[in-house]
Amino acid sequence: MKLLLLISCAVVCVALSFAWRQPWIGGVGLVIAFVAMFTDRDDVHVDDEKRSYETTKSVRNMRSRNR
After folding, report:
1. Contact 9, 25 (CB under 8 A)
2. Which of 4, 28, 44, 57 is the most exposed place for a label (fewest CB within 10 A)?
């Protein structure tokens, strides 16, 4: 949700820089976009976090042997 809010603020700032012909507003928008990109967390769970018996590397090794 935070990423969507920051990106929308960045888009509004860049659009306002063209409407008001003030380039510094577009710069602020780009800074907000970079902050949004670098503070976004990746909450994707991998198989190793599920405490399974097999790791992803071992599963890949087993599948590559059957081919």
Report:
1. no
2. 44
